[in-house]
Design goal:
The structure is a single chain. The chain has 66 residues and is mostly helical. It is 73% helix and 0% strand. The chain contains 3 helices and no strands.
């Protein structure tokens, strides 16, 4: 696996999840019934990813740029 592909995959996952959550709130596009049945699980996964990334952010070491 080339360097950076994992980060790209995580970015795409967050982008899709973010667009879905925006669409649920603002109703830009009518979603099929299949997605509406999974809405609870999608929100749970989104919340888990946000918590995971916030903990990762707290543990990140900052490098001073001179």
């Amino acid at each position: 696996m080339a360097r950076g592909n994992g980060r790209t995959l995580i970015f795409v996952l967050y982008a899709i999840l973010g667009l879905y959550l925006l669409n649920v709130g603002l109703q830009f596009v009518n979603l099929p019934e299949f997605f509406l049945k999974l809405n609870k699980w999608i929100v749970i996964i989104g919340g888990g990813l946000l918590i995971f990334e916030s903990l990762k952010f707290l543990g990140a070491k900052r490098v001073a740029v001179r």
